Amino acid sequence: xxxxxxxxxxxxxxxxxxxxxxxxxxxxxxxxxxxxxxxxxxxxxxxxxxxxxxxxxxxxxxxxxxxxxxxxxxxxxxxxxxxxxxxxxxxxxxxxxxxxxxxxxxxxxxxxxxxxxxxxxxxxxxxxxxxxxxxxxxxxxxxxxxxxxxxxxxxxxxxxxxxxxxxxxxxxxxxxxxxxxxxxxxxxxxxxxxxxxxxxxxxxxxxxxxxxxxxxxxxxxxxxxxxxxxxxxxxxxxxxxxxxxxxxxxxxxxxxxxxxxxxxxxxxxxxxxxxxxxxxxxxxxxxxxxxxxxxxxxxxxxxxxxxxxxxxxxxxxxxxxxxxxxxxxxxxxxxxxxxxxxxxxxxxxxxxxxxxxxxxxxxxxxxxxxxxxxxxxxxxxxxxxxxxxxxxxxxxxxxxxxxxxxxxxxxxxxxxxxxxxxxxxxxxxxxxxxxxxxxxxxxxxxxxxxxxxxxxxxxxxxxxxxxxxxxxxxxxxxxxxxxxxxxxxxxxxxxxxxxxxxxxxxxxxxxxxxxxxxxxxxxxxxxxxxxxxxxxxxxxxxxxxxxxxxxxxxxxxxxxxxxxxxxxxxxxxxxxxxxxxxxxxxxxxxxxxxxxxxxxxxxxxxxxxxxxxxxxxxxxxxxxxxxxxxxxxxxxxxxxxxxxxxxxxxxxxxxxxxxxxxxxxxxxxxxxxxxxxxxxxxxxxxxxxxxxxxxxxxxxxxxxxxxxxxxxxxxxxxxxxxxxxxxxxxxxxxxxxxxxxxxxxxxxxxxxxxxxxxxxxxxxxxxxxxxxxxxxxxxxxxxxxxxxxxxxxxxxxxxxxxxxxxxxxxxxxxxxxxxxxxxxxxxxxxxxxxxxxxxxxxxxx
Length: 845
Hints:
By secondary structure, this protein is of the alpha/beta class. About 45% of the residues lie in helices and about 15% in strands. Strands 16-17-18-19-20-21-22-23 form an 8-stranded parallel β-barrel, surrounded by 6 helices. A 7-stranded mixed beta sheet has the order 9-13-12-11-10-14-15. A 4-stranded parallel beta sheet has the order 2-1-3-4, with helices on both faces. Helix 14 (about 370-385) packs antiparallel against helix 16, helix 23 packs across helix 24 and helix 31 runs antiparallel to helix 32 (about 825-840). The two termini are about 40 Å apart.
């Protein structure tokens, strides 16, 4: 894939151009880097050739690199940077406009096109604007994939299809990008024209050319391509995109465009583009936190041993500071927060990381700061490349540890204490765990950041404070240091500089929220049940022991999914049986006799671990993962099963096997457990026996075989995330088929119903632990379909219990039946919304 580097005099502009290019491509992971600005924190205008070199290296690719610059010295700096690379990787400087060129180039990169195509498309990026504003028509109006010929000859060879575009703003950047990607993926040489100008055809694979058609809402386009099966498939694909309005909301004529408000604690986007980390209302002055980023020296060192000694001293200093932070949390009884710093300690002590730093110094004569930066950045990049979003945000932990280390190497304390004059709303570009700890907890009334993730360790710390916290707030500059601001997550608002009337109103709301929190905390501890008293236990999904306190506090009635793989993914050597036993018991001990479903090690495919050589697979989700991997890791798997049996004696532990498709897989695992039961009995080691063994139903094969699988299982738990992508044949990470990846689709619901019914025939319970269970509408549907329990993130538990209490069993049954008879997911969503509104639960939408 071609790399793209954006260079601007303004650091802010460079980052914004990169963000726009990524957003147009629906958040696809593309190799785009941006640099700009000089001086402290890049606040001054200017460009730096050294930073351009680093930006090029960050996206280096054998396919080549395209550089876009704004003006003046940016061009000179880029040319200077190119001298560093010689003739190895093809790098082209492009005179295209920075913003428009970045968008056009990114779309071509997302389609896997070569450097020359990306370059040419970027060059033409101003054509759509020029044609619309000046009426100057571009010459490039026929598809370059196909030579022009006489109109009569072309019509004999080509098939045509018309589509009406109903998206609110026509074929603007995002839908046009989806359209272009779909055409490119087909491999067909296609052209498209505006129906009002049928004599003007453009290349359907060119975002710029499609944009020049100026297709507005209600307009028709004509797509044509050579007659054949591929073209027929392409027309069907475009028909589906158009029918789904490219995933955009259609607003009835005369109604204002407003985004729907959802419950706090959901972690989803809301009407200011916010994501809620933790809910609530706060009125307080703003404290703007300025992050100090050490300047990394570029000079090589001469005394290698002295530099390595300097590195070791810094590592020891940071280790002491992290241990102190961990101990402080333990002393305050905050075990979840202490575990955050335990994870940071493991990152710092990773021998591979430390070896990598030393290697940088010994082989490249890098200075210690440079070695620390490069080694930690490499590990952070590995986390960012993972499929699992929960694992991707672990890169933030690596960056936080890296910052501590760089500060120590700079001779400054890695942890600072910030004393506030009064309780304040903390405002920052992004917050790391160590920065949250810099403040006294009782002085934080709220948190607002531009960037962050609701599953990060920083988010765990923020939630533990019990204050409102939001991320993805883009108007950060409006929050002035010292001025009063308001956070209201229930209305999804951040209000800078409120007037007197707003202050009066929100101070009252703040007090009301605090009263409600006391009441809801009490209500969440009640069992999950419908309005007419039917019990539906609501469990928690967790991956680490640090989450236990939070989910218990949220009202979890047990653990419906304990992901054991996280113990394996954060280390460079396999955990011993004793390591696993201690980790499992630390969770079980805190839940007492509440049920815990522990999923056996689920690695392989996209979840790579450093101490096992796993095969590289073209499609990891259809490869060697879960139960399929166990025969190839016999030693590790044996210690895993023994640790599970030993830990099970401490509480009510049930064992779940991932990725099952056949009954013999369950029987094989049962026989292995029996083998270790006999071994432990012979050696006098305390353990649980018998144990309940169930399966995760996450494949169409498991659904089809659910009757047979129920005969050899003690329980079912449906994983709706993978089940949806397998049933719908839609990769959940592929923006091009995102509209299909919806667990509300009737096809998925019918699979769930069938599984529930076959479980009931064998008198075994069937729960759901996928994301659908954490959605208010999804929870209602699943309860109506007859599942015995729901399992969701801790943050979702209070609202799931609250929404269940508003609806009766008969209403849930009627909702399920009507949804099973629906034709598409849109109809299902509408029926769920209708029931919520009827029940007075609009606030959960």
